[in-house]
Amino acid sequence: MHQPRKSMKLENLQALTTEGKNESSSDLDQLSVRGIVQMMNDEDKKVPYAVERVLDQVSDAVEIITHALEKGGRLFYFGAGTSGRLGILDASECPPTFGTPPELVQGVIAGGPPAMVRAVEGAEDSFELGQEDVHKYGVTKNDVVVGIAASGRTPYVRGVLAEAQKIEAKTIAVSCNKPSYINEGVDVAINVVVGPEVLTGSTRLKAGTAQKLVLNMLTTATMIRLGKVYGNLMVSVQATNLKLKERVKRIIMEVTGASYEEAEQLADQADGDAKTAIIMKLTGTSREEATRLLNVTNGKIREAISQLD
Q: In degrees, to the nearest 5, what angle opens at C-alpha 121 toward C-alphas 116 and 127?
């Protein structure tokens, strides 16, 4: 078993904001059910405001990720426990939402896939395991590594970020404490300080919500910048089930003004690709020409249309 790196003093955990006691919920076990959920809701309301205070850092991170992906790099999330699960969740939503290959955005959890549903003893406490996973998952200097740790001190995440920096990959830290150990040497540090949890130390609550909001922004804003969105529509959505096939048709209808029947025909001709269907309709071109236009503009609809002006 990998051992914790000794330079991290675990006795200092109680000094972390995420481990602090929330005085507002000191009588939590005496509240009614309605009182408990009201208390949780009141605390949850603080999260978006905490995220708002770090939007500059989130924006800087998006710029870094976008640049890397435009140059052929990838985005990796690394975390342990809840943080790792949130990274995997966000990564797994990118292919169906934005039509990206699974390898473009990857989520890695300390302890591997089994840790998604059950804690793997000692995994998050191993600096060395973090270092090893950087190489195990093939991270290169062209990639961006996002280390996620609510506490900001998880040894596994520190090991990931330290090793990623050695190979000159861009690094971003996401935590809910400030100062944060995982900030060391990173290109961007995003510290969303949401305060002590309703249930002391249960960082799947406010901290987890804050992390989810930040990860939502990182991938969504990046994909918008990469041309995966037209207006506010998911034009790169993959029509892998009936609901999504219908969504593709509605997107075509909304963008082009086509009837349902025409949108269905266009979708069929474009093999379910909304972008191709939209270009075909708006420019009066064939599927082959629409595909060519999208290829030369890196999939950006507005630029593809302007090619014919």
A: 95
Catalytic residue among 11, 19, 70, 93: 93
124 assigned to active site: yes
Token pair for 121: 């003893």
pTM for the full predicted model: 0.90
pLDDT-based confidence at 145, cuts 50/70/90? very high
Q: Report residue 155: phi and psi, to 5°.
A: -55, -40
Region of 53 on the Ramachandran plot (φ > 0 left; ψ -120 to 50 alpha; else beta): alpha
Residue tagged active-site, from 63, 121, 124, 128:
124
d(C-alpha 232, C-alpha 230), whole Å: 6
Mean pLDDT score, 272-276: 94
Give yes or no: 52 in active site: no
The dihedral through the CA atoms of 17, 20, 26, 32 has a sign that is: positive
**Gap between the Cα atoms of 100 and 18, Å rounded:** 34
Structure tokens at 150: 């609510």
Residue-wise pLDDT for 6-46, tens only, equals 444 544 655 677 776 777 888 998 999 999 999 999 999 99
The residue-averaged pLDDT of 118-140 equals 93
With a CB cutoff of 8 Å and minimum separation 6, the contacts of 121 are 1
Helix (H, G, I), strand (E, B) or coil at 113: helix
What is the Cα–Cα distance from 24 to 45, expressed in whole angstroms? 14
Look at residue 235 in the predicted model and tell me its pLDDT.
92
